[in-house]
Amino acid sequence: MKQQQRHEFRPSWDLCREVPYIQDEQMPKKRVQFLKWFSCAIVGMLVFVLALLSKTSFLLLITFGNNQTKIICSEQKPTALLGIGFVLVGSSVLLLLKSTWKFIFKSATMPSKKTLFWVLCVEFLVALGAAVLTIVAMPHFDIVTNVMILNSVSILSSVFQVVAECLAKERKRLIMLPVCSIFLIVTGYVLFAISYLAFESSLAINISVGLAIVGTIFVSVNWWENYSTLFAVSFLEDISRDIAQSRNVVCIISSLVRILVTSAVVGAYVPLSGQEWKLVKLVFETVVVSLVAIQIASSALCRWFVVVACKMHALRRSFVLPMYLASITVLAVFLVPTTVRLPKSNQTSTCFDNFQPKSSDEWLLLMLTDAIRTLNTRDIVVHKKTGGLVCLGCSALSWWLGLMLSTVYIWYLKIHRIERTQDLFVRRMYEGAFLEQSMLLNTRFEIRKRIKEKKCAKETIRVFLCATMWHETYDEMMKIIISMFRLDKYRPKTKEQHDVEFEFHIYFDDAFKDVDNGRHANEYAEILVDVIKEVYTIFSEEDPCTFKQKAALPRQKIINTPYGGRLEYTLPKGNLMMVHLKDKTLIRHKKRWSQIMYLYYILGWSLNRQYFKKLKAGEELDSLKENLKKDKENTYILALDGDTDFQPSAVMLLIDRLKLYPEVGAACGRIHPTGTGPMVWYQKFEYAVGHWLQKTAEHVFGCVLCSPGCFSLFRGAALMDNNVMKRYTTKASEASHYVQYDQGEDRWLCTLLLQQGWRVEYNAASDAYTNAPQDFKEFYNQRRRWGPSTMANTIDLLGSGGLTSQRNSSISKLYILYQIISMAASILGPATICLMISGSFVFILNMDENIALALAIVPPIVYLILCFKLKSDTQIKIAAIMSILYAFLMAGTILSIIGDLVKQKTFLTPSGLFLIGMVVLYIITAALHPQEFSLVIYGLLYFLCIPSGYLLLVIYSIVNLNNVTWGTRETGSQAKTTTVDTIKKKVMNATCCKCPCLESEDLSEKTLPAETITKTEKPHISLETQRDHEFQLSPHQTWIEHLQMKSYEFPLDESALPLDEIDFWRELQKKYLEPLKENKEQQEKVADDLRELRNKVTFAFFFCNALWLVATFFLQAIGDSISIKIPKIYPNGTYDPTEVFSLDPIALMFLLSFTVLLLMQFVAMLYHRIYTLIHFVAYADTEIKSYRKQSHQSHQILDSNHQPETYGPDTALCFQNPSARSITSV
């Protein structure tokens, strides 16, 4: 009894624990909420201001066309009409350019004749209505009417809403809103007609009123597509479907129709109205051009910020509200200065031929006064006719309210965490003359019932986290296991349907060792079991502050399998975790084969098998195909390394990318190297630059070429596509295969996805942390694998560039060209470094350029020769010594350049501009990544190590290309028994409830209860049956009993696999994963082939670099006759013609190419940062609400769990340390 008591409670005198630091999600923080609100406020203000600029500039152009205004003489009124025409076609020109680009480089699907005819008719009506309304009719009206009549274009949208909601049998109160909108807009038409026809009727006014009403109705046809699928009319549904498939061609046609119709109306109206085009002159080059430019630019920017507001979930405060207030504010802007008059000296002039304002304030005053003159000259204002004024005001109010009621559905629109623009807005572009109306009416309309049905029928995403392990340390294992348990806590498995479900898999390579009586799990596998036990104990303590006994850890499963063994854990929140222990004598080992193992187990066995069973049961084939297709698309695999550390938010952000874009086959996050020491510091900055500039440029301009295997999310449908998963199983048989397939398996998998047409993306907000090599040798060996593999896969992709660009809409011919230039820059990297070192000699030692170049080439050539003769370890030692010497040289170069700038008294020299430009660019880039800004500190170390990383490392990688060993962890020392015992004691001490402190292992084994080794059976198959069915694995399962004894505090009950799963593993092993047999002749042949490949690649690689250096040498030898002279320019702008800087053409070309490449990457980074911020704000908004809801539920559970209990005197009580995220016992 005493012994049992000691197992249940720790003694009260030994209560302190050593537990790992578990950092929870940094979600409900005030700064995140502040960032969200600040971003939304800025976007909302920009939307409002830009809408004001757009509407005001357009209305001023309309005002200039009014005969009552004086700012433009009556003879020059065609100038204003031409400006209005440019505004109308501005958005069409932008749409034409965008669609033409997509047509050339992406989709070029042609519409049907029926669709083409429909589009031509609709676009003709809309273009004609807009041109007639704005060019012919509106110049005859006052400013109040012009501000508000644009709101009446919502008339047909309201009608369509009523019809759609009646067909859907929506609630009456919802149908009444568009009905009221129709009533108000029609009332506005009537009052508008009365205010003109009844009080100041004339032929021109009567025609203008009629044309205005007809024009607004024609324009309102523009948004028919928003309601076409709601009418249950097959004709409209077919056309909408065809338009969606051929959107680029349809947009090109519609843009051309708009431009032609608008041009025809402008061209015909001017002579018909008795005006002449020849009078269009100087004024067109001043005020009208400025207003047109302001209107087009502000409209385009406003539309973009509206999209941003919607994607940031700031729909109401940053989009709808600013748009509603735009008309009212513009009206106020025009009506406020009604009492302002021009100075007497200026009022004698009638137009700008005689008077030119001297300042911008005078310009603004004159234009506002001219605009209000259209109202002050009306008869109802001059004679103060109350009826006319009432009609005018009520018509304006009716139109404004009508627009609000017709678009009130946007106020309640449900937006997913991340949305595509095409899912938010029906048409691609805005309407130049109707900016706020077009943006509001273009927002996708949905029936409320259907929104609820969609919400109830949401599909569940299944994510399988698959980590590959080998010789990871205790700390590295702790990171990945804690990350998995975090995710289990984040999304518990319940009976209710969730948006995401998780399942965890760990594939442990070479997990067994031979012992006298069979096989045991090796030291690394034992450490993993101990780590899981420790983390399980911590995460299972849901309420450490309550005074209650700690529950025993639940029993888990241990299974013998054809490939080795398996541990099955049910995590504290219900999710399943499997640890697959691989025996290299039974199944092929190494990372790629572990990946093939889980790909076929999850996608081939678990996913497909259930549908084949349903087919045999007689279910309908078509429905099975459709459901299987959906399951493939909604099944994701998160590839992980055994030392990856991540938060749940990182996974969810990647899931968002795949959920939103069905063409995305893979997505990766921002990888942060961890560790200490100079090598890690160098890699921190290297990784930062690679992600900040290179990966963002790949994402924006085309596709990411490599989604790293340490943290990448893959879509099941993409992996199961033709020529992907099946080809990934190819066993290396040629020398090039060993380099491309096995040295960088993650890059090869991405190459296969890209060639098959799938997109690979990068999400900068999804952070993951992985251990980086901390010593020089391990770093060089790692990059020895990565360098040749990267080159091989890039050449493979570029070689199939034509076919890939046809299959993959994200990869254009221009992107292929970009990659060719980048590849050329990488190949010529060593020669470029030699030239830089040569420049360093010239700067520091003041020697002749040719001698300096020759001196710079000698050390790399010597190192190249030595690499052919010496062993790998010796090569690395020599590289380390040379790296230190080169670092001193680079430090001297920096100081020499700075000294030269001081000596020359100007920084406008080629070297000065290059150095300063690079520093400024990296600082700005780092500033745009505020959480990573501290990494710029490592930039100096990165600069000092440039010769090592881009010259010596390249030579080492190319010369050792025939070495296809893994290079990292292979020579790591085996875990010593004493080390393992120490770790075990640490784990035992960390367990707070059951084990007696510092008990010996022998005592533990003696006191092990008999129940812990009880074998449970599957109800449908016995262990004996399984053993009879299997090939005779072993008469005595020593490894199972061994692990059961080691994990006595966390009981492992022996279980069995189903027969069909055993058959699956057998067939998979036989076909793809049979251990590779050693064949000395074959190995010698492969080694010879690899050496031959190494020699060819080395020759080609360094021949290109030699050509570059020889060309530079001869250009320098020729001298000034062909060099480009650059005058010496001082910071104050003056220059000295007697002093010049000389650059040879090749150096200038390379410098310009490198600068252009960097600037392109910088622009892409800016674009990517904006959309990363949008995604992060949207994620924060949804997750904070989810967190609050979850916290409220957990508080209720905690309150219900606080039941009084009594304890013995030695019972351990627990409290939670408020200063840390770990649980402490007292």
From TrEMBL:
GO terms for biological process: chitin biosynthetic process. The chain crosses the membrane at residues 37-60, 80-97, 117-137, 143-163, 175-197, 203-224, 249-270, 282-306, 318-336, 815-845, 851-868, 880-899, 911-928, 935-959, 1099-1118, 1146-1167. It is a multi-pass membrane protein. It is an enzyme of class 2 (transferase). This is chitin synthase. It is found in: Cell membrane. The keyword Membrane applies.
